[in-house]
Each structure stands twice: as C-alpha cells, then as structure tokens.
Amino acid sequence: MTAQEVRLCGLLLQEHFGEVVERIGTHLLRAGAQNLRNIANETNTPLDLVKKSLCVLVQHGACEFGSGRRGPGSPVEYRASCERVLRVLRYPRYIYTAKTLYGDTGELIVEEVLQRGHMTMSNTVKTVADRLTHNMEEGRSMEYSEVVSAFSKLVETHFLQRCPPVAEMGTASNPDCYKLPHVTLTGRGKRRRSSDDSEEQRRGKKAKMDSESCGDEGIYWQVNFERFHQHFRDQAIISAVASKLDQTSSEIVRTMLRMSEVTTTQTAAYTQPLSANEIFRSLPPNYSISRPILDQYLSLLVDDPMEFVGKSGDSGGGMYVVNLQRALANLARATLESVVQERFGSRSARIFRLLLRKRHLEQKQVEDFAMIPAKEAKDMLYTLLSENLVQLQGC
Description:
Helix 2 (19-31) crosses helix 4. By secondary structure, the chain is mainly alpha-helical. The strands form 3 sheets. The chain has a 3-stranded antiparallel beta sheet with strand order 1-3-2. The protein has helices spanning 3-17, 19-31, 36-43, 47-59, 82-86, 91-116, 121-134, 144-156, 199-211, 225-244, 247-259, 276-282, 291-303, 324-344, 346-358, 363-370, 374-386; strands at 34-35, 63-66, 77-80, 119-120, 160-162, 220-223, 274-275, 309-312, 319-322.
C-alpha cells in the first residue's frame, strides 16, 4: 500500500471513530501484524485505550486477529486492512443500493449494520422499526414483521451474512452464513417521546433492548461487501448492453444475471449455464416477447464483439452464459480507448486501438496499418509513450 492510501485510511478512521482509533489503525497499517503490548508501547497509548480501539476496528471489519508468528502459545497479533478501511468511502453507495432494491426499510437496515459493524437480527429490526415509526404521521407505526421481511430478503440475496464465530475467523467458508435464526418478534416500532433524550437514557434503552430474549442471542450479522461489489459489476454490464444494443437485450442479460446472482462467485469467469427455455420463463411479465424473438436476441448477444453472452453446445437449443470477465475486460478496454480519444484525438485513439489488438508493432507497421503519415505517427507514438499509455520494447 502507498503512503497516500495510509494517509487516506487515517483520515477516514479519524472522521468516523476519533483520534485514538486513527492512531492505532494507522500504526497497524504501517507496522504490520503486532501484539497488544507492542502496539501500546510503540504508539505511547494506555493499554485500556488500545483494547477499546482494537475492539472498534475488529467490530467494523477493519482489523483481524490471530495467533502470533511464533505459533500457538505466542501473544495474539492484530492486523489492519487498508482495503477494508477504504470501504467506508462506498458506504453511501451500499446504502443507496439497498434503498433502490428494498425501499426505505432495506436502506435503514443496511445503514444501521454499517454504522454498528455488526448487529443481531432482533436489535436491527427493533431499531429500524423505531426509526421508521418516528418518521410516520401520528397514530401510525411500523410492524416488526415488515422489517423482518426486508431483513430476510437481504439475507436471501446474500447482501447480509452471519459473522463467523470467533474460532472460525479467517477460515474460507461458513456454511450457515445465510441461515436465518428463528426469531420471536411481535409488536410495532415505538415513537420517541422527546428529541432530547439524554445519553444515559439512550444507553438504558439499548441495554433493555439487548437483554430482551428473542431467540437469536449471539448471532450477529454484517454487510456482505463482496455481494454489493458483484451487484455493481452486474449493473455495469447491464448498462453497457443497453447502451451498445437496446433495452430488451439488457433485460435479457439482467434476467440471466439475476438467475445466477447467489450461485455465481465474485471471481467466476462466467455465470452458470442457462437454457433458452429457462431464460424465457424468467423474463419479467411486461416483456412480452415470443420465444423465436428471444432466440434472435440471444444470437445477437453471442455474436456481438463485446462478447457479453457466450453459448456452450447446440443440443436442446444450447446453453447460455454471461461472460463476466471477458465483458468487463472489453468494457475496460473501451473506456481506455475513449479516454485516449478525448485527450489526444481520434488518430491517436486509432493507434492505441491498433496496438491493443496487435500487441506489438514496429513504427513502420503502425504507420501502414493506421494509415497515418510517418511524422504524425511518430509524434503521436511519442506522446502516448510519454503519458505511459504505450511501452517501447527493445529487440
């Protein structure tokens, strides 16, 4: 990580958690894994403040802990993650996405979990129901069951997941991470009687809420950032299809992505194979296109140079996949080409596009293939070289 990244992380930690947490977090980012005693000594911070700061960092996923480098029996070491701290910059986007997909209730659920780091389902439901009730007109209140429904949908689509038990932290998988507990929640949200509740009153209410048994004690939930990033990736592909082809094509791709959203990992090269019949049955009702028309659209998507959709085999009409990695690579390439064209003109973009496709060319070959006079081609190549957009390779 660069010094600029560490500085940005420090500013984010200070803004959200205060100076002491910022001091501890920045020290861990610079020094790497360290035990409690070393952190306290090297930051000149009292041990109790170090413990509290580490608790904050761990709760918000910015820090992990594990056995020391000397193996079992050595002091526990703490490691901060620059990437996880920088996620704070995307919090507004995560919250807005939840609002877009699941309305105000989904928005507040994700906002509360992000603010607290992790929460039990029952506490989240009660807190969100109270907030929604406070914004309703007098005499109305939010049912717990409605918030439970939105929470369940966020878990079903993997936007929320269980925090792994402490013994399993750092392991590859948690088989129960999307298993909803049986929660006994009945009632409605409560309106705050005054807007100037003291801090002691709020703490008392929270302690009372925590002490009420709802059947999910010790089961905490966190935001699944990878799932949100996967959703952003899918939206970029859908928007590109709509821009390159048309709205119906983008809706077909959206349907394919939605059918595979919880079965496709973030690193997968393509979605699970789907037959044309499966896609046809899953299209939204308002898209009343016939099966032959769908086949034509699928063929158009398969033949498009951007390679959004791929086809495997012809038996039974063939199976179709969304080429995730190839589509994103082509999108990145198109973005680079547009940046070069905007900054250096269409002829430079032509040279850049040519080098992307051919990989390696001599200057004379660039002049011939791009059909640009020698002097102009030389000047453009030099400009692209000075901007680090192309490289010169020796024999």
